[in-house]
Amino acid sequence: MRNLLHLGLSLIPLRGMGEITYRLFWAEEPPYTYRVIMRLSPSKGPYTDLQMPSWRPGRYILQNYAGALYHFSAQTPDGQPLAWKKTDKDTWRIFHTGKASTLEVSYRIDARTLDAGSSYQGGALIYFNPITLFLYPVGRLNEPCRLELPDLPATWAVATALPAKNKRLYEAPSYHHLVDAPFVIAPTLRQTQTTCEGTTLHVHFWGEIGAKNVDPFLTDLCKIVQTQKQIWGELPLAEYHFIYILVPFLMRHAVEHENCAVFVLPQSGAQDESSLKGFLSISAHEFFHVWNVKRLRPAAMWPYDYNTPPMTSLHWFTEGVTDYYTSLTLVRAGLMPEAQYWSQLSSFLQELENSWVYQNFSPAELSMDSWHATSPYRPTFLQGSFYAAGKRVGFLLDMFLRRESGGRYKLDDLMRYLYRTYYKRGKGLPEEGVLEGVVHLLGAEKRKVVEDFWRSYVEGRERVSYKDFLTGLPIAVEEVEELAQGWARIGIRRWSQEGEGIRIVHVEPLSAAARLGLSQDDIIYTVDGKSAGDLDPAFWDSLKDGARVPIGWRRKDEVVDEGVLYFTARQIPRQKRLRLTPTKEGFGTSD
Ligand SMILES: [Zn+2]
Q1: Predicted TM-score of the model (pTM)
Q2: Which of 25, 403, 409, 500 lies at a C-alpha separation of 20 to 30 Å from 190?
Q3: Apex CA 329: angle with CA 327 and CA 334, to 5°?
Q4: What residue ranges of the chain have pLDDT lower than 70?
Q5: pLDDT at residue 7, as a whole number
Q6: Residues of the chain with CATH 2.60.40.3650
Q7: Distance 105 CA to ligand 1 centre (A)
Q8: Cα(227) to centroid of ligand 1, in Å?
């Protein structure tokens, strides 16, 4: 099979030098397997280093795609083997000492992960994110690339944002563009398009879609596009592709690209016209990335270095502020009632106020710590989300700008200013760029108050007093802080009844329950000799400082344990109730 493939390749004449060609094969491969044959000119000097990305834009963890690569070999086009060795976990060094004018490299790669940023080969679903499959020559990311798909049956459908020369041949001006354009290929796809604000929106569905008429969905997508264009002042796209992979299980994942986004969503959400509305929020989030992160992008990722994890404290801005704008977009586009917007926002902020991790990690810290998310040394209780932390900053910053400018500016103005100042001038957003943008809008005399904001809520972990923060703005604030009650009083913030016992869902670190050694998924059976399932949660409210309560519990692995919980008043977590209601119609949303 290997020889056959090589024979096929040699019939195709080699294109101009300085062009890197990738041929991707799957037809003769087992499921979950791609085979790649790559041709390129050698780098200057005695060897060429080829590298696999260790992470991908949009997910700030190490994924080490090189781990899926095997059967690597290198030769000249006429079949003379070239020596090679690995020089680090991601790099293959091919030695050519001037004797080769073209290098031909081949390898296999495993592809069995199905999420919005992965690659998968399942026979009737050919789905790949080029960044997980293709090596690049070190230092040559700007050379034009060709992608050939010789195995693609003529009748199959293709969804991709990469321009096609023909169905089996795609060209990208650089590796950066090649890897920013995923492909979904299948015998059939439901494909449709509409023109919106002069841009062609392509919508592709793979999988079972029950909705007969998707036109209303396209109309809603266009409302999202129009609303976001207004925020940014321009729509920098001629075409855009929404690529939806519908799966028969519950999954909600999406990844943004320059000219497209891929979504993996449950097919139940596409069973009819009205359920499709459930896809609008995630679509609005990804489309906002057209500007925020794909174009207005932290300098640490300008340009992308696929081997070295980019260190930026701005993920709270690129993801969290995008999340803030997701619901704002829906309400402005008339796709969500205003009352629902405020009620969801209030619940969201209340949850953050009551969550230990957000009182102990700042949005800037959580951004940097994104790289620890998959570390076995990072326990769940330390895993905060820069999405959530940043969404809160987005709201606070929006209100801060309105408050400090006397209503002259809001967050939209800052977004437009940053987009013009950095992206439109061909630059990345510096680490201090957002802060400086706020100072620019409010004037240098406000620098101190802006720096205070950053110290408290971006680089700091201060709790927010919404009553104080929103003073002077037309928002009614109901904010009550009190000692936690019931099970939460000993630090068991969330739990569920399980037969005779209480299953712990979340324990507050350093609380009385945590000090006893109780943790997530433990089942408490007895409290003070009585059945935990029958216990009135108010029992905990009556405990006096210094009380000792015998507790019996069982761990998942069937270890039965008992101990005495030592209750002290100073360890009682605090609990906030929060409700924000605008007193002026449209304030904070359309106004
Ligand atoms: Zn995002």
Answers
A1: 0.94
A2: 25
A3: 100
A4: 1-18, 98, 557
A5: 37
A6: 2-186
A7: 35
A8: 18
* Ligand 1 mean position, distance from CA 259 (Å): 14
Q: How far away, in angstroms, is 387 Cα from ligand 1 center? A: 8
- Residue-level pLDDT at 100: 83
Buried residues in 429-451 as b, exposed as e (16+ CB within 10 A): bbeebbbebbbebbeeeeeeebe
What's the longest Cα–Cα distance across the chain? Answer: 85
State how far the Cα of 221 lies from the Cα of 383, in Å rounded to an integer: 33
List the end-to-end C-alpha distance of the chain, in Å, as a whole number: 64
What separation in Å is there between the alpha carbon of 282 and the centre of ligand 1?
A: 9
Q: What is residue 65's predicted lDDT score, i.e. its pLDDT? A: 98
Tell me which amino acid residue 48 is: T
The partner residues of 25 in beta bridges, in order of sequence, read 35
CATH code 2.30.42.10 region(s) in the chain: 486-572
Looking at the chain, the domain(s) classified CATH 1.10.390.10 span 190-290
Centroid of ligand 1 to alpha carbon of 294 (angstroms): 10
Closest CA to 479 of 491, 463, 458: 463
Report residue 390 as tokens.
């940043």
Q: 70: buried, middle or exposed (CB in 10 Å: 19+, 13-18, 0-12)? A: exposed
Q: How far is the CA of 318 from the centre of ligand 1 (A)?
A: 7
* Cis bond before residue 46 (omega within 30° of 0): no
Ligand 1 centroid, distance to 300 Cα (angstroms): 17
CA 257 to ligand 1 centroid distance, Å:
10
Question: What tokens appear for 34 in the block?
Answer: 């791609």
Report how far ligand 1's centroid is from the alpha carbon of 374 (Å): 18
Collapse the DSSP code of 348 into the 3-class scheme (helix H, G, I; strand E, B; otherwise coil) and give the result.
helix
- CB neighbourhood size of 274 (10 A): 10
Pairing of strands 136-137, 190-196: unpaired
Locate 190 and state its tokens. Answer: 């439901």
Architecture in CATH of 486-572: Roll (2.30)
The residue behind tokens 């592809």 is: 111
Which SS3 state, helix, strand or coil, does residue 499 take? coil
CATH of 190-290, one of 1.10.10.10, 1.10.390.10, 3.40.225.10, 3.50.50.60: 1.10.390.10
State the alpha helices, DSSP H only, in 457-581.
Answer: 466-469, 512-516
**Cα–Cα distance, 211 to 189 (Å, whole number):** 14
| 534 Cα to the center of ligand 1, angstroms | 43
Domain 2-186: which CATH number of 2.60.40.1730, 3.40.50.300, 2.60.40.3650, 1.10.1040.10: 2.60.40.3650
CA distances from 190 to 209, 240, 478 (A): 8, 16, 48
254 CA from centroid of ligand 1 (Å): 8
Tokens of 65: 């795609």
Count of Cβ atoms closer than 10 Å to residue 16 Cβ:
7
Q: Which of 314, 370, 364, 386 is nearest to 60 (CA)?
A: 370
Query: How many angstroms is it from 26 CA to the middle of ligand 1?
Result: 31
C-alpha of residue 319 to centroid of ligand 1, in Å: 5
At 158 the pLDDT is 98
Residue pair 256/228 in contact by the 8 Å Cβ criterion: no
